[in-house]
Design a protein that fits this description.
Elements (H helix, E strand, L loop, with lengths): L4 E8 L5 E2 L5 E4 L37 E6 L3 E5 L11 E6 L6 E6 L5 E3 L4 E13 L3 E7 L5 E8 L6 E8 L4 E10 L3 E12 L12 H9 L4 E4 L3 H4 L22 E3 L3 E3 L5 H11 L2 E6 L17 H19 L5 H8 L10 E4 L7 H17 L4 E5 L7 H13 L3 E7 L2 H6 L13 E8 L5 H16 L4 E6 L3 E3 L10 E3 L4 E3 L1 H10 L5 E8 L13 E6 L3 E10 L5 E6 L8 E4 L9 E11 L4 E6 L6 E7 H4 L1 E8 L2 E4 L4 E2 L7 E9 L4 E6 L2 E7 L8 E7 L6 E7 L5 E7 L2 E2 L2 E9 L16 E7 L3 E4 L3 E7 L12
Parallel strand pairs: 1-43, 3-15, 3-23, 15-18, 18-19, 19-20, 20-21, 21-22, 22-23, 24-25
Antiparallel strand pairs: 1-27, 2-27, 4-7, 5-6, 6-14, 7-13, 8-13, 9-12, 9-14, 10-11, 10-13, 16-17, 25-26, 27-41, 28-31, 28-33, 29-30, 29-32, 32-38, 33-34, 34-35, 35-36, 35-37, 38-39, 39-40, 41-42, 42-48, 43-44, 43-47, 45-46, 45-48
Helix pairs in contact: 4-5, 4-6, 9-10
Bound molecules: alpha-L-arabinofuranose.
């Protein structure tokens, strides 16, 4: 019986190492999937300022999140008259008649219940104003679902002016689904606004702070930077929705609230000061993203620019951000920062302008003016431009050309792709121009939370380190998602009110980040297992229409069989798009597929599947992706959909006959898609191999430690024989390893396994590397040379 195959890994410390900027692995924070309100931001009261509106979600309003229990004619009305805060004017007015038994309770159950811990303290703050009558006291209580009071208190001596009433409540018992109750029982009227409840034990006990358990999970990642406030949120769905950093400063009650384009509400309680303080507490550099003077392009009418007459102010707003972050306290904005309790500058180094913006003249004009102003006034800031949502295509190419021309220091590339794409692209950055803009891989991830995804990302991170002279920063996205509120998956860290569930992807990020170096060493690998993906076998044609009816008046092949079918898709269930596999097939490797399709009803378009339909490997030409705005060619592989051609603007119109031709040659290596006789999309396979086994190495020049990182995403265990500068790696090394079934792991579930760490003794450089594993082997400095002054 033969043992595992031996793979020789040669780490060359003698060749010049590649300098890795010290900031490579960071995090991307966006208030998406309740990441901020109801998530990291530790506020426990939902809709604390009664500012929810139907813009957040149809049907939402000032009383969303609140229950009113009234007795004896007591009532509550919503008012904006004589507000406590003019920018957030909505408040409640409670009135009780002078009748025995009259009372009213306002009950808030927080974000799916409030978690209360026995012995812990909670900071309550309510703004109140006596309106008339003798009402002067409000009783408050934290109550468990059975009605047991966990803590009580009273707010009294109300005046006819708005006053904020703070109170610390100590819980006598625990509950995971508690409520906050405000009770009114005296005749008269009381106005109520901004009802806030925070645990005192936030991260670092910061007031208006963040959840300690979630922040600790971030701290463990050792992020070198934090990008905020996000991607799409930064430029917003319309100008009114654009994230304006100045509106997030100052007392939380006075920050303009807004709808969240992910379908809920932004309280702005987690604002720029809080983000910068969090960065400081995490030991990470702040990386704010401001809109490039245009809002999100995914609006029905496309992106809207800031009007010309407001551009000068907008540019000044961006310059003010740098002064606010870095200026001494004798500057206007530095003084504002000082007055907010942070006289020391934050040391801002990076500023991103724009996010995935569509590259057109308006964008280029707005971007150029902001970019040039920042670079002229603040040459010390590294400005980061944007090159579209995808790692290829028109926005990508034009964005890069523009960035080169304008000499933008760094650009933000995004890559949401399948594991296969990452394994195929491990050498992507090897050929990047070192003299042009550097790369910030601002959003990336392999579309899943399985071990195969984690391994693809481990390998890609190694490739990023190897190219650390051009890829300076990278942040996986999105960071957080709350269970039950997931608007985008996969995510790095799932959580609910009580638990934190880091994914396998998180552990891989953590393994890389805690075994970082500032120099990438050259590595040669001999004998590595290779991976052969079975050719996609043709299995048929399918049609998918979400919530509509598609009439295929003809489907035929131009091949030896000349098979034909006529089909009417009667699926009509908006909630359940079904893939209907047509009863036609071919045995030919090269074929043309003709489809004459009419959407009879429905607005979501339809998809023609071909190739290995019904298997995890096939192609799909989708008419009406991105809210019926594009036609896009996809490859489905390992269960994940990858765009393989640029989306082309197009809307499916019900009743219109679509004359579709798909020419396939080389078993899917070349695909040409025509609509009404015109070529719309073309794809030619790159033939890049999937590198399922890879090894990289870094050195930390401060400590002298060397780390070898090995990804084995195959089903073959191997014996690695590691040499460093031609000498076998010997002696004790610290091994961190994660391994397991490539299909294990799923969104919203706890990671099925976690990394293990141990000290192992290597002899002859030999170490066993299991199948489906990621391993880091850290050797502390072996050559500790005494410095001259140590004698
Ligand atoms: O990470 C989620 C979203 O993906 C970001 O908001 C956007 O930039 C990208 O399209």
């Amino acid at each position: 019986m033969t043992g595992p195959r031996e793979v020789r890994i040669d780490v060359g410390t003698k060749t010049p190492a590649t300098e890795i900027g010290g900031d490579l692995v960071g995090i991307f924070f966006e208030d998406l999937s309740s990441a901020a309100d109801g998530g990291l931001y530790a506020e426990l009261v939902r809709n604390r300022a009664f500012e929810f509106t139907s813009l957040d979600q149809p049907g939402w309003g000032p009383l969303t999140g609140w229950e009113v229990r009234s007795h004896g004619g007591a009532k509550v009305t919503v008012s904006t008259t004589d507000p406590a805060f003019s920018v957030n004017p909505t408040h409640l007015e409670v009135s009780l008649p002078d009748t025995p038994g009259s009372s009213l309770a306002l009950v808030n159950t927080g974000y799916d219940g409030i978690v209360i811990r026995k012995g812990a303290e909670y900071r309550l703050n309510v703004h109140l104003r006596r309106l008339n009558g003798s009402s002067s006291t409000v009783r408050v209580a934290l109550v468990d679902p059975a009605g047991t009071e966990l803590a009580t208190g009273a707010l009294w001596s109300l005046t006819e002016e708005w006053v904020s009433y703070p109170l610390v409540l100590r819980a006598a018992a625990s509950a995971v689904k508690a409520s906050l109750v405000l009770e009114f029982s005296e005749p008269g009227g009381i106005a109520v606004d901004h009802v806030s409840l925070f645990p005192v034990d936030t991260f670092r006990r910061q007031e208006n702070g963040v959840r300690a358990d979630l922040a600790e999970t971030l701290l463990d990642l050792k992020p070198r930077f934090v990008r905020f406030p996000g991607g799409c949120i930064a430029h917003g769905l319309g100008l009114e929705n654009m994230y304006r950093w100045k509106e997030t400063l100052g007392p939380v009650e006075e920050r303009r609230q807004n709808f969240n384009l992910w379908g809920y509400h932004q309280s702005m309680g987690l604002g720029y000061l809080e983000y910068f303080i969090l960065c400081e507490q995490l030991g990470a550099k702040p990386l704010p993203v401001v809109a490039a003077g245009v809002c999100c392009q995914n609006l029905p009418g496309g992106p809207v620019p800031i009007p010309e007459e407001e551009m000068a102010n907008y540019i000044q707003e961006v310059l003010d951000l740098v002064e606010w972050a870095n200026g001494p306290v004798n500057t206007y904005w530095g003084a504002r920062r000082g007055a907010a309790g942070h006289p020391e500058p934050f040391g801002l180094e990076y500023l991103a302008i724009g996010n995935e913006d569509h590259q057109n003249d308006t964008f280029r004009d707005r971007f150029t003016r902001i970019h040039d102003a920042v670079r002229a006034v603040h040459p010390e800031i590294t400005v980061i431009g944007t090159v579209g949502p995808s790692p290829f295509g028109r926005d990508f190419d034009e964005g890069w050309a523009f960035a080169r021309k304008r000499q933008v220091p760094m650009v933000d590339e995004h890559s949401y792709k399948s594991p296969r794409w990452f394994f195929e692209n491990l050498t992507r950055f090897d050929s990047y121009d070192r003299s042009g803009p550097a790369v910030y891989l601002g959003e990336w991830g392999s579309k899943g939370n399985r071990m195969l995804n984690a391994l693809a990302e481990a390998a890609y991170l190694g490739a990023l380190e190897r190219n650390g002279d051009v890829v300076r920063l990278a942040s996986w996205a999105p960071l957080f998602a709350k269970l039950g509120q997931v608007h985008w998956d996969p995510d790095l860290i799932y959580f609910d009110n009580e638990r934190v569930l880091p994914s396998l992807n998180y552990y891989v990020q953590r393994m890389h980040s805690t075994a970082a170096g500032d120099q990438a060493l050259s590595v040669r690998t001999d004998g590595a297992p290779t991976f052969e993906r079975p050719e996609t076998a043709f299995a048929g044609v399918s049609i998918t229409a979400a919530g509509g009816t598609v009439d295929l008046t003809g489907v035929r092949f131009d091949d030896a069989t000349g098979a034909e079918a006529t089909y009417r898709d009667e699926s009509d269930d908006a909630a359940a798009p079904t893939e209907l596999i047509l009863p036609i097939t071919t045995t030919a490797e090269d074929y043309s597929l003709y489809v004459r399709a009419t959407l009879i009803r429905g607005s979501d378009g339809f998809t023609i599947g071909f190739g290995g339909v019904g298997t995890p490997e096939h192609f799909a030409w989708n008419f009406g992706t991105w809210r019926n705005r594009h036609v896009t060619l996809y490859r489905r592989t390992d269960g994940y959909l990858d765009e393989i051609a640029d989306p082309v603007p197009f809307s499916v119109e019900p009743g219109r006959l679509h004359d579709i031709e798909i020419q396939v040659t080389g078993r899917g290596r070349r695909i040409t898609c025509l609509l009404d006789g015109e070529v719309i999309s073309e794809y030619v396979a790159t033939d890049a191999p999937e590198q399922r086994f890879s090894a990289t190495a870094v050195r930390d020049s401060a400590t002298g430690a060397t780390v070898v990182k090995i990804v084995n995403a195959t089903d073959s265990p191997v014996t690695a024989r590691i040499f460093i500068s031609d000498a076998p790696l010997e002696g004790f090394v610290t091994r961190e390893q994660i391994s397991g079934d490539p299909d294990a792991g799923a969104p919203c579930e706890p990671a099925p396994f976690t990394p293990t760490t141990d000290e192992i003794m290597l002899a002859g450089g030999l170490v066993e590397i299991p199948e489906w594993s990621f391993t880091t082997l850290k050797r502390q400095s072996s050559t500790t040379t005494a410095s001259p002054d140590q004698g």
